[in-house]
Design brief:
By secondary structure, the chain is mainly beta. It has 1 helix and 12 strands; from the N terminus they run ββββββαββββββ. The strands form 3 sheets. Strands 1, 2, 3, 6, 9, 10, 11 and 12 form an 8-stranded antiparallel β-sheet that branches. A two-stranded antiparallel ribbon has the order 4-5. The longest helix is centred in the middle third of the chain and has 8 residues. The chain starts with 13 loop residues before the first strand and ends with a strand.
Length: 177
């Protein structure tokens, strides 16, 4: 007789922190892993006399998928093309200066991150990939810590690609064996 009937040990766990890729390039070391939120907003259609949400009247209103995490590395290229999208850089004595994009300007197609992947290892041989075909850093902050490395707290927001179906989710989850 089983000690705890019906218990099944978990077999499909996401292991470790995962890694963030921009195309085929890793974005650097991270700390404490990443969070993915599909940002799905579901609405149950209301009607006169309704006292509780009804099955078959739910629909997805909006998607606002994000991936966020803490990065501990940031090269000039990453700051210039990922964190400060649309910025320019120039050489200065002893280094370089990054000039952020001016407020009020629309982003152009070349300013967006294409093919952002959060890749994680699953228990066994599976790999899971969360793919944002088009993304943008919505916010970031640098926190310096005494006796420790600084952390770039970064949030990537997914965008619908130009010409894509506006009703489809803008992200994809892939499980590879």
């Amino acid at each position: 007789m089983a000690i705890f009937p019906g218990y099944v040990a978990p077999q499909n766990l996401w292991l470790d922190a995962g890694v963030l890729y921009y195309g085929a390039t890793p974005l650097g070391a991270s700390r404490d892993g990443f969070q993915f939120d599909p940002g799905m907003d579901i609405r149950n259609v209301p009607f006169d006399g309704q006292h509780a949400p009804n099955a078959t009247l739910d629909r997805i209103i909006t998607w606002k998928p994000i991936i966020k995490g803490k990065m501990v590395e940031a090269t000039q290229s990453v700051i210039n093309t990922i964190y400060e999208v649309g910025s320019t850089s120039s050489s200065i004595t002893g280094g370089y200066a990054i000039v952020p994009k001016s407020a009020g300007q629309l982003f152009i197609a070349g300013n967006y991150i294409t093919d952002l992947f959060l890749i994680g290892r699953m228990q066994g041989t599976q790999v899971i990939k969360i793919h944002f075909p088009v993304a943008l850093v919505e916010k970031y902050a640098l926190a310096a810590k005494p006796h420790n490395e600084g952390e770039w707290d970064v949030q990537f927001g997914c965008r619908v690609a130009v010409g894509a179906n506006l009703e489809s989710p803008p992200y994809e989850i892939q499980v590879l064996t």
